[in-house]
């Protein structure tokens, strides 16, 4: 089943202890769609400027990602500059230029309308909601957000949450959104805002999924209320953590969309695939590792994740 | 097989968001031995003052812990006062009084000498080494340490590490000991100092074991080189994290000692039992939860930990 994703397609300048890259292809929708493309068909909605050319387009084409929903306008693409020099777990933002993104009005191509899965990457909740409203019949909607929207655009975000099945955020964001430092209590508070599933990403420690009990489908209602935790792979070298969370979301949602039924077992495997894709994303700068990845490498790492956590 | 443990038996005054307790029974050897006593015979070596009376002794007796190695001397027992008001993951120490511990000379009772397992809880590495040297024939030696010994008593600590099979420390301590912020690289550096296994505790995120490849026994040599990660249980309320790490060590080492063979499979289960015991310790103040615990509760939670992490 196909996924439509709306989010940023951008250029990033990144500095980490491993080096520096200028204006490499980035953005949440880029990482998400490259990652999800290993599992299912992906369709992107975004806006780019004149600096987005054939070379960038080719990255999407190589993974058979549908880019008809990427609008090209006059001006420059979204640009982010950041570093991870003191702490690989947290980016320090040096510069953000919205550019063409400032006037972004998401339009959904006719060919995207039969997508059964919708992912609302981290953008203005007003835009997330507009896309959600234009695709009322999707089977599953997941989304991401960040501290800025949680703190300064809360009412708009709360509206989006009402229409989400799955929210993927990190520890700090979950605690901030709930106003509660205990993760279990915070999860319960967030689940009361709309989503039936909350995936909290812990960076190098993996991710935990919390369930409201509404579960995915009537068939599995109540089947799994206790949380599920996927590990992260202890990495010899984290070259660049940019996009790891979006790559997690892509692996997670891509695998779910590739499955016929949304069972708790499929969900657990989706958490593992998410963590697998997040680990690959960190191994090289920007999207470099995702571009050269093979499905065999993904499945081999899945087995490694199983060995990392399973008793037998 | 029996475990001998050397470490502190102390009184703690603790403040957490859940409340405050004055001078409750504590100390690394106390938490460790209560926790390990659910799995195997435990023998304690420590020193206490005149404030350690029948009530404290009864806590050990109730769990059939051998206390003949607890020396009673004039003066007051080791005392620690701390709080976790801002951060439940890190204690803020307000007061430490070594008292009778300042002149502690560990003596090993004759009845302890056939112990096949030895645990060196977090005390002065000079004392750890003296105990280690008096028990040269044990089958497996594990130990703990802390930032103070790593930074200010490094040469003595390095001597201890040479005689350890398993070192259990937290993330910060592992990075500090190795002088390397990458956990995988830090683990390799620590394993080069002596222990064949390093267990790094991540607090609310669980624990990861790293192996040098020397493994436990010649039989399993090279059988398991990749790391193993045990989860922690997301807790509704962390009442008091004091002793969680020592309780982890007790469950981990206690389970290992209860097993006939030190196989990789036994080791993985030991990691889970460690995490299980750490989670119980946090549920009430001091050793309260460990005192009232049953083996059935432990095994039920073990099953919960499996469900928390296993795909099928």
Fold and architecture overview:
The structure is a homodimer of 312-residue chains. The two termini of chain A are 33 Å apart. Mean pLDDT of chain A is 94; it is low at 216-223. Chain A has helices at 28-36, 54-61, 125-134, 147-152, 154-162, 171-178, 183-191, 244-258, 264-281, 288-292, 295-309; strands at 3-6, 10-16, 19-26, 42-48, 66-72, 78-83, 92-97, 117-120, 140-144, 166-170, 197-201, 207-211, 228-230. Chain A contains eleven helices and 13 strands. By secondary structure, chain A is of the alpha/beta class. The first copy, chain A, is globular, with a radius of gyration of 18 Å. Chain A has a nine-stranded mixed β-sheet with strand order 5-4-1-8-9-10-11-12-13, sandwiched between helices. Chain A has a four-stranded mixed β-sheet with strand order 3-2-6-7. Helix content of chain A is 36%, strand content 23%. Chains A and B meet through α7, α9 and α11 of A and α7, α9 and α11 of B.
